[in-house]
């Protein structure tokens, strides 16, 4: 397990908690239960293998930004105090320039009052796929000899070989054909 896989850490995390935050204390309501998180994490790991890491990172940044705007767009300094991360880190995350750590995603969900179901069922899948970029920065880059234009429009599914432009739809298709009960 690498340091990027371990929840709770991050080199940009503030060392001391700030007082007067608007979010609920860490580890309280608003966080998914560890049992549901473990179950969904395993499912997310399987589904993430079918996703393009760069697309997942962009989608995650868009979802986080939407939650930020939906919460009234609190100032990054106020939000930074609530989640114990710097304004610069939050700015990079919302701009899609940096894949956040999972603890930051969870802290943002609590601070922005995002329902735990959304975090577990949507954000975890996107973060799991995008996290391959944190662990291997070259994972989403085009192979030598290919053009960026062809890789930006979609990607080849490693499981079935199809050209995928809508990851969510394609992943859903794989889940339907692999689940005999549907």
TrEMBL record:
Residue segments, region Disordered: 1-35
Source superkingdom: Bacteria
HTH cro/C1-type domain sequence ranges: 79-119
InterPro entries: Cro/C1-type_HTH, Lambda_DNA-bd_dom_sf
Higher taxonomy: Bacteria, Bacillati, Actinomycetota, Actinomycetes, Micromonosporales
Molecular-function GO terms, alphabetical: DNA binding
Pfam families assigned: HTH_31
Identification of the protein by name: HTH cro/C1-type domain-containing protein
Source organism (scientific name): Actinoplanes friuliensis DSM 7358
